[in-house]
Amino acid sequence: MAQIQIRRPTENTLLVELVGNWRLQDPLPSMQELIRACRSDPLVQILRFNTQALERWDTGLITFLLKLRRLCAHKHIEIDVSGLPQGAQRLISLATAASEREGSSQISVKESPVSRLGNKAIRTRDGAHDMVAFIGDVFVTFLRFLAGKARYRRSDLSLTIQECGARALPIVTLISVLVGLILAFVGAVQLQQFGAQIYVANLVGLGMAREMGAMMTAVIMAGRTGAAFAAQLGTMRVNQEIDALTTLGLSPMEFLVLPRMLALMLMMPLLCVYSDVLGILGGAIVGVTMLDLGVSQYFYQTQEALTLTDFMVGLVKSAVFGVLVSLAGCLRGMQCGSSSAAVGLATTSAVVTGIVFIVVSDAILTVMYDILGV
Amino acid sequence: MNDASITVQDLTIAYGEVVIQRDVNFTVNRGDIFIVMGASGCGKSSLLRHMVGLQEPARGDVLYEGESFWQADDETRLRLMRRFGVLFQSGALWSSMTVGENIALPLQEYTDLSEKRIREVVSLKLALVGLAGFEDYYPNALSGGMQKRAGLARAMALDPDILFFDEPSAGLDPISSRHLDDLILELRESLGATVIVVTHELASILAIGNNSVFLDADTKTLLATGHPQKLLAESPIPSVQKFLRRGEEVSAPTS
Fold this sequence. Notes:
Oligomer: heterodimer
Strand content of chain B: 15-25%
Helix content of chain A: over 70%
Mean pLDDT of chain A: 89
CATH class of the domain at 1-83 and 162-168 and 193-246 in chain B: Alpha Beta
Radius of gyration of chain B: 19 Å
Distance between the termini of chain A: 82 Å
Largest interface: A-B, 17 and 22 residues
Low-confidence stretches of chain A: none
Number of domains of chain A: 2
Structural class of chain A: alpha/beta
Order of helices and strands of chain A: EEHEEHEHHHHHHHHHH
Largest sheet of chain B: 6 strands, mixed
Number of strands of chain B: 10
Strand order of the largest sheet of chain B: 6-7-8-3-9-10
Mean pLDDT of chain B: 86
CATH superfamily of the domain at 1-83 and 162-168 and 193-246 in chain B: P-loop containing nucleotide triphosphate hydrolases
Helix content of chain B: 25-40%
Radius of gyration of chain A: 35 Å
Number of strands of chain A: 5
Order of helices and strands of chain B: EEEHEEHEHHHEHEHEEHH
Distance between the termini of chain B: 30 Å
Strand content of chain A: 5-15%
């Protein structure tokens, strides 16, 4: 327990006796008593310490003394530290040796709402500018690729294809079957009331082929591969690996972004078809086991309901999603700052950007299909 | 052997509106081991980034044998960059490739050598930096010092005319750091390359440098150029003296 006792040995000297344990975990006495003592007449001119009853001390004591020192400086009271333990004296002189550098303590000025709005607008504009510039870079890179001039490692491309194609199959399988099941259940509850449970096949087939197959694979790939792209590129940025490529005259766009985008753009439609088929299978499980439909009956109905156009509608969507998800992942990865926290931000931002892109473009495409009548 | 290899002209280094260094002018001669020194945060590494083409200067230019780097078109710039070898602070090996593939990549991209020849060159370069037989290791299986040496092997892959080192001794123990210094000297002698070293490691500066610039963070410009030993003996500038004597205050020699 930390305590202070204040005495006045002479007219203008204040003797502060520090008693007990002065550690960070001990409750420290308040300064009030001292402030009152300093104010009393006749005016105190010098402050001394007595530490004979002081037991253990650490940073707790030093912070108290520094506070006291500041108070004394304010009131023009001289402070005599000779009564303090050796170690404490040294720490205080060390802490006060270098005066605070001017302007080093950043005073956080409270921004007015107007300037906050303005700054936000400027940042948004810069962000949009970066994105457009990146899309332009990607476009030029693809032109070079088509012209056969792009430099990249074939082995990188095949590795990335394996990573975002074959390795994604288990998760796509699980999600697609479940989505098929869910669609079937949702439809079954309504359609059974009219004895029209056979139309569950139409619902699941159309739902998967036109919408959910493409959508679900895109969301999975945004969380799985888009995030991985951003994390890989971001880490390479932090480790100066991207700088090392640039100084060798190798374009990071061709070397890193191109194979990743190509791989995902190729794999996304394939995964979409796979997802369509498995979704229909999931619907069939519900149809056969719970709605007493025959297996062949279910598949015949599905075949009747679906045309190739319906599959194409989904495929076109998934091709667009493939471009957008890989674009979002690579964009955020290349924009990454140079710290480990920035890699985390880039990854999060890649997923968020990817999903926003997916949903917005899906809405646009659906409206376009409606106008075109497909 | 005393012709100018690199000339830095009126270079201003700035991030946005914050100016780090202004009006930096100096010349590096061919075969120099040129030290860029200064306190932390004075813009040494930024200067290096400007010289190797990673960051565009706010003002000014860098000339390689009289040829402008930043005014040039992309093609010229790439041609000039191909003559550089850069060793980054952390080695910056591509972590998805083995050490051997790291060194082979520039050779595959820029030469017509057969795979077999490339493998020979790779093992030679690794042997030069004391890492013979480490071709199939991934960078994360190597220690910091070994990664740096592997990075050096990669920087030397294309037999560059100019080698840049960013803080070569950062994070190395004194003995490894000394070995790296010896290696730098050895390479300069045998390859005849010009070497630019960014460092604040006093022992290295005095041991290997034969020319230098001192960048100052307070005045935001370069304060002195010359042989580091000579600067130590003769420079009248207090902050240069203080830096080269590890902060010991000495009265500047009267000369």
